[in-house]
Amino acid sequence: MASVLSGSMAARPVPGSYGLPVLGALRDRLDYFYFQGQDKYFESRVERHGSTVVRINVPPGPLMAKDPRVVALLDAKSFPVLFDVDKVEKRDVFTGTYVPSASLTGGYRVCAYLDPSEPTHAAVKQLLFSLLLSRKDAVVPTFRSNFSSHFAAAESQLANAGKSDFNKLNDATSFDFICEAYFGVRPSATELGSGGSGRAAKWLFLQLAPLVTLGLPMFIEEPLLHTFHLPSILVSGDYKALYKYFSTAASEALDMAEGLGLSREEACHNLLFATVFNSYGGFKKLFPGILADVSKAGEKLHRRLAAEIRAAVAEAGGEVTVAALEKMELTSSVVWEALRLDPPVKFQYGRAKDDLEIESHDALFAVSKGEMLFGYQPCATKDARVFGATAGEFVGDRFVGDEGRKLLQYVYWSNGRETETPSVGNKQCPGKNLVVLVGRLFLVELFLRYDTFTAEVGKDPLGAKVTLTGVTKATSGPGT
Ligand code: HEM
Questions:
Q1: Is 80 in the pocket of ligand 1 (CB under 6 A)?
Q2: Nearest Cα to 203, choosing from 245, 169, 162?
Q3: Whose CA is nearest to atom 21 of ligand 1?
Q4: Looking at this predicted complex, what is its ipTM?
Q5: 237 CA to middle of ligand 1, Å?
Q6: Ligand 1 near 85 CB (within 6 A)
Q7: How many angstroms separate the Cα of 294 from the Cα of each of 153, 156, 303, 374, 455?
């Protein structure tokens, strides 16, 4: 996708309109949540203006967001401007055009809201890199112990009730898994008890409510979720309970933080956010998303995955090792394909640091300093100009082989290309490698245990909702 436009064509104004002040944004919010829905909202504006770079309003709008007007980048070519921190400022844009109250994070602006030019950004991100490195050997065994209990529980639900709510079990499992992997202490075995994931979900909901619909009538949701911030006092008890767990369980990480010049308190709020919002919030969507795609792909893919996984594990002497995971090309491709087709974090924002020229496949656009740039990631990662006629479909082996791997540069789920590396100087997700690793581990656990499975796939406010309806126990290989 080398540039053929810059240098040969004058930049033109970005098409699109914001409509009347306030009323335009309110009307668009209703389109987004109720009349058109998320994908159609963006696709219809691309069609209307014949351009994948277009001016639109984004939710939530009035009264929560000061200014809902953005320049939307809705193709694979223009989108990566959002990764370039020389071109865009990332201060306070994590959730977009509104910022949840800092009282939800102990009064601190945590890492995800910091621009790399703010010194605390590098210190916190370094802390997370050091934490992940120090715990790297704990990930595989902790994942396996937590998720083998998960599937054992699912099997007994299937035996008793004929179905098992995957999301519900996953919430409890993912929360215990990630906390134990990072800090060596299972939250459900502490004072926090089994209620940790529920408390976490409530706290997450308060921050994301402006962007979700629960399927209630709009006259209830509009004033309740999309117009005013819900008061943080509703979850202050939950946050305190979570904080208490972190301040004790994360004591070694907090020692590391002091060595990096952070106070224990600021570090603890940051560790809580990175674990509960970034990691647990991500896994709440990641695992149901992978399971939904693999379920819909059917038994043929299941058999291929099972064969690849069992062969690699057998070759590693029956152990699930990181080296064995690296050999699983199809399994890795399935994880990337799920992340491409339905990226768990769909919105990215950045404010133009200067007057910019932004290139789509077809044109060059002029954007002024200070304007808010916005990317709706599914439009970029399902761009048919890159992924061809099957761009909107799940193709499990899309990233297999040399040709397949070349497409990884267009997988953007981590706020960067899959071929790039997160650093203290950029805003790419520090959990990038961990996420792909646990995605593969999830498939490994599934297909060491089962030859195939069936499920019903629906939707919940955050993503896919999966109910397991049947499993066929493994008949061969290291899983038997
Ligand atoms: C940033 C996605 C898991 C920690 C981000 C961003 C995205 C993302 C899109 C950039 C947001 C923006 O600035 O626009 C995801 C997804 C995950 C996941 C989809 C799981 C499925 C994790 C994990 C960690 C983590 C496991 C644990 C360390 C962070 C942090 C940032 C971040 C701290 C802010 C980075 C910075 O300020 O430079 N993530 N993430 N995330 N993520 Fe992740």
A1: no
A2: 245
A3: 282
A4: 0.98
A5: 26
A6: no
A7: 21, 22, 11, 30, 10
Given a contact cutoff of 8 angstroms between Cβ atoms, the answer to whether 465 and 443 are in contact is: no
> At which residue do the structure tokens 């064995």 appear?
324
Pair of tokens at residue 283: 């896994």
pLDDT tens-digit map of 396-431: 999 999 999 999 999 999 999 999 999 999 999 999
Burial bucket for residue 473 (CB in 10 Å: 0-12, 13-18, 19+): exposed
What is the reported pTM? Answer: 0.97
* 436 Cβ inside 6 Å of ligand 1: no
Can you say how many angstroms the Cα of residue 374 is from the centroid of all Cα atoms in its chain? 16
- The rounded distance, in Å, linking the Cα atoms of 287 and 290 is 5
State pLDDT tens for residues 440-468. Answer: 999 999 999 999 999 999 998 889 999 99
- Whether 126 lines ligand 1, by a CB cut-off of 6 Å, is no
Q: What does the radius of gyration of the chain's CA atoms come to, in whole angstroms?
A: 22
User: Which residue has its alpha carbon closest to ligand 1 atom 24?
Assistant: 431
**Looking at the predicted structure, is the pLDDT value of residue 300 above 80?**
yes
Q: Which residues lie closer than 8 Å to 207 by C-beta, 6 or more apart?
A: 95, 100, 104, 277
The widest CA-to-CA distance across the chain, in whole angstroms, is 68
Best residue among 81, 177, 256, 278 to mutate for probing ligand 1's pocket (most ligand atoms within 8 Å of CB) is 278
Whole-angstrom CA distances from 240 to 110, 170, 265, 383 are 17, 23, 13, 43
Would you state the structure tokens that stand for residue 140, as one six-digit string? 């595989």
Phi-psi region of 413 (alpha: psi -120 to 50; beta: other; left: phi over 0): alpha
111 DSSP 8-state letter:
G
In short, whether 434's Cβ falls inside 6 Å of ligand 1 is yes
Give the pairing type, strands 347-352 and 88-89.
antiparallel
How far is ligand 1, taken at its centre, from the CA of residue 423, in Å?
12
Residue 460 Cα to ligand 1 midpoint, Å, equals 21
Q: Give Cα separations from 187 to 131, 180, 199, 283, 465 (angstroms).
A: 18, 7, 12, 16, 25
* Ligand 1 contact, 335 CB (< 6 A): no
- Mean pLDDT value across the chain: 96
Cα distances (angstroms) measured from residue 449 to each of 113, 145, 189: 40, 13, 26
Atom of ligand 1 nearest to the CA of 424: 38
135, 429, 440, best to mutate for ligand 1 pocket (most atoms within 8 Å of CB): 429
Residue 2 has pLDDT above 50, yes or no: no
Which tokens in the block code for residue 281? 């919030």
The DSSP letter of residue 276 is: I
